[in-house]
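In keeping with the milestone schedule agreed at the kick-off meeting, the structural modelling team has produced records for the first pair of proteins. Each record is given below as a sequence line and a structure-token line. The laboratory manager (R.T.) confirmed that both were archived under the project's standard naming scheme.
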Amino acid sequence: MSADDATTELLTLSRRLLESIAEGDWTTYAELCDSTLSAFEPEARGQLVEGMDFHRYYFELQGSSTPRQTTITAPKVRMLGPHAAVVTYVRLDQWVDRDGTPATSVFEETRIWHRRQGRWYHVHFHRSSNR
């Protein structure tokens, strides 16, 4: 697989991952992530979380949330050899709040992907909020 092909595939997978989050699609999210996924994110309050249970909780809460749109800006892919990559971008989440006012959240994200057995798995991420 060429570096250009891997870059395209990783950006597609990253977009698919974010769509699964916005849509509350746990099945797709779990399919894309390694079961030992680790993360630093605002919801973890500075703690490293490992495994999928922490994330599943938030998917289960999403049941009645309003539709969201996610936009990736300034994406970069850095290959760390044929089996590992870092994907960075700024994520814009848009939705309509309870008062009917459009709202946007901004996050800087770094996602680590590991290729094994012919496919990429999301293994770690760091998400910072700039609300």
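The second protein of the pair:
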Amino acid sequence: MKFTLAQLRKFNMPYSYSEDLDLSKDLNGFEDIKSSSLCHVDYIIKERGDETYLVEFKYQIDLVLEDSVSLEEIPYKIKDESSELYTTDKENSDATIIEGITLDTYEAVLTEVLSSKPMSITNHQFEDDSADYEEEEEDKINPAFANLKDLLK
């Protein structure tokens, strides 16, 4: 979403807006992301002072990720929400600074999608050998303590 500060001043707040973002050119740089759908985003913009805006957004995107073990494709859906504070006040360290005259949420949405994506994903089933390990541990008795075992009976 890109709005100039002049446009934002004309809106009745809170202002709602929806769009579909194509994040694929930036997501394709990640080797485990095979493809992505358009990212649907619903925004609510709220004024929080002089040229300061709180942007709350809900986003949804379908990714196809690579299985970290078998390298097969796994569909993965992300549906989440976030918020970001934007301002022209360069002294405000808690907000994203609006550079120039345009409030642009593209980077915030992209960052949220990447933060919501798992580091790795797999459908591979591993065998549980923990029971075998526990039995082996019980069978191994330190010879120095072998005589103490009889005292506990």
